[in-house]
């Protein structure tokens, strides 16, 4: 008895095909390579694009989504793909207006913050994070924002996975003080982390949520701390406004 489901096998075949050597291919090439009618090949490719595993350029060439290539099935899938498509132009506008770096991050299953996109400041001196670096949740604005959506037991479990290590002399490591900051982030819908990950960098963050009120991603502005006090009100206002805008856009897209 053959237990292989042909359609599922075709999807896996395509993912394996595109995973090799950063391969790119057109619809015609996929149809020929896999001996599929173009209509069937197009259906599979469209499904993988909608779910975020493949991307298609303006020449009709398909390739593996780079986030999926780097992070595998933990990368975020269709919801994150939708958020990214909505967020990128808004983030570029924010970076231009605020002249500070704007980032989009997610929390991994291991309780770390992973960046998925950055719109860099045009300033000669700017705050920039490595896209491959996993950041802690206890001392980043993004981490505290995600933690504010968790109940006490869930927070404790996530924080227990990594020690509350001081990244700088300003890092908050006292559990009670940290709990107060997380609660504060939840109450006002934004979090701030100043000089706690890197001395000289301040982050302001809010969450982008789905229709169930669950956070999908965190929208963060990273400022050079020396400039932050003059821009604090504008940064907080912009982060909140654009975070709410992205949440509304995403929830509308969810409803179709």
From TrEMBL:
Keyword Transcription included in the entry's annotation: yes
Superkingdom of source: Bacteria
Signal peptide coordinates: none
InterPro entries membership: GAF-like_dom_sf, HTH_MetabolicPath_Reg, Tscrpt_reg_IclR_C, Tscrpt_reg_IclR_N, WH-like_DNA-bd_sf, WH_DNA-bd_sf
Which Gene3D superfamilies does the record match to this protein?
3.30.450.40, Winged helix-like DNA-binding domain superfamily/Winged helix DNA-binding domain
Task: List, for all copies, the residue spans of the domain called HTH iclR-type.
Answer: 5-66
Q: Which residues form the IclR-ED domain?
A: 71-256
Q: Which GO terms describe its biological process?
A: negative regulation of DNA-templated transcription
* Keywords linked to the UniProt accession: DNA-binding, Transcription, Transcription regulation
This entry's Gene Ontology molecular function terms read:
DNA binding; DNA-binding transcription factor activity
Q: Does the keyword Protein biosynthesis apply?
A: no
- Return the protein name: HTH-type transcriptional repressor AllR
Taxonomic source organism? Erwinia billingiae (strain Eb661)
């Amino acid at each position: 008895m053959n237990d292989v489901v042909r359609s599922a096998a075709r999807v896996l075949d395509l993912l394996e095909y595109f995973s090799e050597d950063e391969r790119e291919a057109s619809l015609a090439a996929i149809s020929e390579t896999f001996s599929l009618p173009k209509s069937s090949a197009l259906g599979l490719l469209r499904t993988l694009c909608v779910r975020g595993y493949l991307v298609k350029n303006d020449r009709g060439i398909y390739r593996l989504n780079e986030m999926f290539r780097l992070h595998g099935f933990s990368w975020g899938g269709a919801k994150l793909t939708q958020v990214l498509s909505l967020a990128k132009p808004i983030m570029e506008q924010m970076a231009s207006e605020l002249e500070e770096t704007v980032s989009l991050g997610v929390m991994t299953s291991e309780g770390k913050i992973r960046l998925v996109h950055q719109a860099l400041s045009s300033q000669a001196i700017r705050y920039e994070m490595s896209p491959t670096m996993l950041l802690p949740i206890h001392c980043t604005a993004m981490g505290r924002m995600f933690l504010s959506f968790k109940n006490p037991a869930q927070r404790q479990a996530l924080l227990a996975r990594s020690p509350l290590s001081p990244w700088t002399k300003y890092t908050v490591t006292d559990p009670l003080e940290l709990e107060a900051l997380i609660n504060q982030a939840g109450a006002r819908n934004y979090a701030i982390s100043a000089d706690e990950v890197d001395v000289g960098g301040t982050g302001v963050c809010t969450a982008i949520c789905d229709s169930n009120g669950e956070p999908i991603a965190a929208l963060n502005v990273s400022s050079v701390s020396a400039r932050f006090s003059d821009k604090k009100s504008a940064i907080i206002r912009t982060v909140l406004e654009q975070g709410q805008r992205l949440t509304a856009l995403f929830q509308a897209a969810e409803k179709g």
